[in-house]
User: Fold this.
Amino acid sequence: HGSAYIMLTNGTLGTGKTEMLPKWLISMLNIMPANVIAFGHNENTSKQIAEKLGTTQTSFEEFMKLDVPATTELIVFDEIHTLTHEQLSDLSKKLKEVNDKRTKKVFLLGLGDPYQITAGNKVSPIYGLTHIGKKASEFSYAEVFETSPLTVRYRSSVVSINSFVDKFYGKNDEVGRITGTVSSDGTTGVTKLSDYVSVVNKIKNKDIPDKVTSAIVVSNKDLKDKYAAQLQAEGVDYFDMEDPKRNKFTGQTVQLYLHSNVGGITVDRVYVEMNISDFAGSNYYYNTAMYTALGRATELITVVGMDNVNSETSDIGTTRDIDKDIAEIKATLLVI
Assistant:
């Protein structure tokens, strides 16, 4: 038997794989947060998982160099489906080295969604969790366990958001004409804008309250540069993980991403502009990128320049009336 223990949990976006499952497991196993190492596939996801679990922030690269403390009982890796075969091999070897020195073994909880797109437009089955499980098992020292997938979403309690995101989930065909529904006050649901100028104007004119978080997600660097230039021209501070001058969180409420880097984040509002030509004309890759980007929002989705989207106003299906139920479910899980 091996000594690199990996438990894989696959969950579609918003199912609580990052927010709820690790907390529940830590509570169930009676593990102190100080004895947990948690990280994601980039600085942003690493920051979020550390904050949610109350652990010290690290990264995959830092973990690979770390002398893991003897007190460590659990390692959590968010967005594990982004690993390459070589990175997975290195991670398995690292876990083996850690456990070879121990009587009480430490295991890694890997969280991911193979239906979300990653760098290079690589998606499941190439880098899906099933693939990772099979690859990890090629090493004689790896013991890989796959749990039942998480399927029930709770990230957004806005019905129209979940319905809109589902239009792109796992689809191989062109989505066609679809309708987005937004509340009468314009704060919840799905709406549309014409271009990057209108998006930045909306942000600049304080249509977004100061404490509301938002992300702009685009499909190519030229588009990203346009948004960046417009944000700067209008004096809007923002986070950009690829910009050395802006890749640290200092209280910004606006974030700017390429679609391949947006996995793992949660914001109140998301603005999405995607061109299918950036995905080699593949409906599947385009739909997967849309699913990944749209699913970041809890309150409001704004699609940009999408002629196939109709926008309707209605207060039916655009309220947050199950927030209380969600909070109660989360609280119950945490004390089990």
